[in-house]
Amino acid sequence: MALPLSAFIICKNEAAYLGNCLESLRCCSEIVVVDSGSTDGTLDLIADYAERGFPIRLFERGWPGYAAQKQFALEQCTQPWCLNIDADERLDRALVDALPALLAASDHIAGWKIARRPFLIGYGYTPEHAHERRNLRLIRKGRGTYDLSLMVHEGIVPDGEVRPSKEGSLLHFRPLPLDEQILKENNYSSLKADMQLERGRKPSVVKLLFSPTTYFLRLYFRTGLWRCGVPGLIQAMTGAAYSFMTEAKKFERTALRDGPPVEDGTEIWWRESGNSEERDIA
């Protein structure tokens, strides 16, 4: 029997990943998908799953940004509970088993934070005790909205108590080679740096020095990536690089805002000597 739960997904060109996401949502009464212009077969895949009886409601909409698109998707949900899930995520069996109890929570609980376990190249999914921090993904209908000012790491702002789910995880399957992952981290760090500067958060030498180290230590030891061998070390170091790029870009953007790079001539020794030669020839 389907649960009183709407899953909502935003996507574009996710044909390689979306199928297994939808398969893991068989327990949902509704699956809201908002597509922003796929050209890789994603729409055909969605149509195929709808024909097979999956309760999909598809919306096609231009791209207004992460938070605005997710807010739109959330507003289309009709069930008492709503689950925010990405196309490259899947519910693990433990989370599916835990959902009935989570949805039966008393009314004062507005939502649940859920752990996420990434897939590491050379290792596989991290073990249950090596998950990312829990984030609010399961929200009671009408008890949360997205902060539209966030450019990256958008999240639901709840109206009421939120608790962590002790059981189950979202599985994150996007095994990007490191060169592609760094490009992704570069893009996210740009968005985060711009967002923080717009909010008046100035560059900080202390953060530039210590945030990458703190980020690494949190991922490697607190999150438990040390359990995953070299792939876990690479994942933690990639996170530290993201943190460093964010702080470094805040310094560079501030410097560029104060004025473009201009050579002041103090070290350009040939300019004066060149002019002298021209005067002698004349």
Automatic annotation (TrEMBL):
Residue span, Glycosyltransferase 2-like domain: 6-99
Family annotation (Pfam families): Glycos_transf_2
Gene Ontology molecular-function annotations: transferase activity
Keywords recorded for this protein, A-Z: Transferase
Record's keyword annotation contains rRNA processing: no
Superkingdom classification of source: Bacteria
Protein family according to the UniProt entry: Belongs to the glycosyltransferase 2 family. WaaE/KdtX subfamily.
Name by which UniProt lists this protein: Glycosyltransferase family 2 protein
Originating species: Notoacmeibacter ruber
